[in-house]
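re: ur question from yesterday

yeah so i grabbed the chain u mentioned. its 244 aa long if i counted rite. heres the sequnce exactly as i have it in my notes:
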Amino acid sequence: MIRAEELAARLGDVRARVATAATSAGRAPGDVTLIAVSKKMPPDDVAHALAAGQRDFGENYAQELRDKRAVIDAAAAAGSTVAIAIARWHFIGPLQANKVKYVAGKVALLHTIDSIELLDEVARRTPAGTTQDCLVQVNVAGDTRKHGVAPAELPALLDHFGARAQVRCTGLMLIPPLGEEAEASRPHFAALRALREAERAHARANVDLVHLSMGMSHDLEVAIAEGATLVRVGTAIFGERTAR
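ran it thru and got these structure tokens back, copy pasting raw so excuse formatting
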């Protein structure tokens, strides 16, 4: 099987999983957006996935996103088959202040705001007249190996969006502790959903908590059952990655 056919088949399988999980949860399949996590994968894989109908792609490294996007954009400009589709890029990895310039104003959604300082830098780097949509990453488990704002500090960070017209918060994101069983993630997904519902009760400028970004290859069904609107799937689509 050639790579394009392999990716199309893998995408079909994952889309079927998403649709089945949404239906089982009493939700419409269209309520859940599949983000294909293309980190460490070549631009050709993104092009093949685009040709198979995938639109949303997630990257963990700012400079890799910059370089990969440039290749895809150049191919589109040159009139390749990629030109029929426009990729929507998501930044889903930890973001250092000195890398914000590669992301702010250049992605559809930035998933990993976790401090006032980072939010301020994103606002500063977002071009005038535009707005960068963001999610706040929350460390609901208190896992020292994971990034994210502590739940107790979430209200203050959400409040701060009101002082920055260049940024808008559209939801929350988490990465739970890695467990072998998908069900191990459920308490963390439920906790994030509860946090969103609690904070929705407070009206804030530039904040509209629509999205829950949670769930990956091994636990997307559990995430969707708990209300995920964005699932981030890499291995199930692209296969195992080599070490960076």
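noticed a couple things. Residues 3-238 form a domain with the TIM Barrel fold (CATH 3.20.20.10). also The chain has a mean pLDDT of 94.
anyway ttyl
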